[in-house]
Amino acid sequence: MSTPKGREIIISALKFNPRSAVSKPHFVDYKLEETPGMTLFIALTKIREEYDADLSFDFVCRAGICGSCGMVVNGKPALACRTLIANYPEGKLTLMPMPAFELIKDLSVNTGKWMDAMSKRVESWIHSNEEVDIAKMEERIDPDIADQTFELDRCIECGICVASCGTKLMRPDFVGPVGLNRVARFEVDPHDNRTHEDYYELIGDDDGIFGCMSLLACEDHCPKHLPLQNKIAYLRRKLVALR
Ligand code: SF4
Ligand code: FES
Q: Tens of pLDDT along the chain (243 residues)?
């Protein structure tokens, strides 16, 4: 029995190599046949294997875990490996690299470099004066507090909230929803001895907590459904009292 033919789809991808003196940004259309359950990751892999070995994009896990496959799909940032072609009835997907990050080539951007700078900027590690004795039993932690910390730790650093953020696009030094989420994660963790005054020093300005215009796209697009706007509003309430 022959397999029924899938519909023809068109993937239109932006191609540009910023390191080449002759490269200019342009779109290339690739026509291919949709297969059952096809994700954008599968489609891009097929394109690279069969039509254009030069097309650059990133992926590692193919399961929405590593956060490396973010790109702009029909105007909205999304993970390629979690994007089902069947959800695009018009059969045409236009792909661009995520803004706000350094472009490596085509659809590949350097989110790692940005996340590293953000982590240093918000001092993304436990600040404590207590000596750690690894021979001692770990201290118990209230399960509710542990849940709250783990909830915010689910961030996969994909950068989709940053690429979705109007403030970030207008204000290049804005720490971004992911940066504010990181502060919220340590604020809730009783192992971290930092005070609200300390957090104010880090993010108490328009490039930090007071820059967010509550446009909500970060939370709408976050593939992990993190409560970004709730946490930003909470931090803003706490820190505005110190102004
Ligand atoms: S907060 Fe969500 S969208 Fe932003 S980097 Fe983390 S997982 Fe990605
Ligand atoms: S390939 Fe890892 S999140 Fe998409």
A: 555 678 999 999 999 999 999 999 999 999 999 999 999 999 999 999 999 999 999 999 999 999 999 999 999 999 999 999 999 999 999 999 999 999 999 999 999 999 999 999 999 999 998 888 889 988 889 999 999 999 999 999 999 999 999 999 999 999 999 999 999 999 999 999 999 999 999 999 999 999 999 999 999 999 999 999 999 999 999 999 998
Give yes or no for a contact between 39 and 64, defined as CB atoms under 8 angstroms apart.
no
Query: How many other C-beta atoms can be found within 10 angstroms of the C-beta atom of residue 102?
Result: 12
Q: Does residue 99 sit in the same domain as residue 149?
A: no
Residue nearest atom 3 of ligand 2, based on CA coordinates: 64
Q: Which domain holds residue 27?
A: 8-109
> What is the Å distance from ligand 2's center to 194 Cα?
33
Atom 1 in ligand 1: residue holding the nearest Cα? 178
Tell me which of 93, 109, 125 is where a domain ends.
109
How far is ligand 1, taken at its centre, from the CA of residue 177, in Å?
A: 8
* Ligand number with the minimum distance to the CA of 163: 1
What's the Cα-to-Cα distance from 56 to each of 10, 102, 118, 242, rounded to whole Å? 17, 14, 25, 46
Alpha carbon of 186 to ligand 1 centroid (Å): 16
- DSSP state for residue 98 in the 8-state scheme: P
pTM recorded for the entire structure: 0.93
Number of domains within the chain: 2
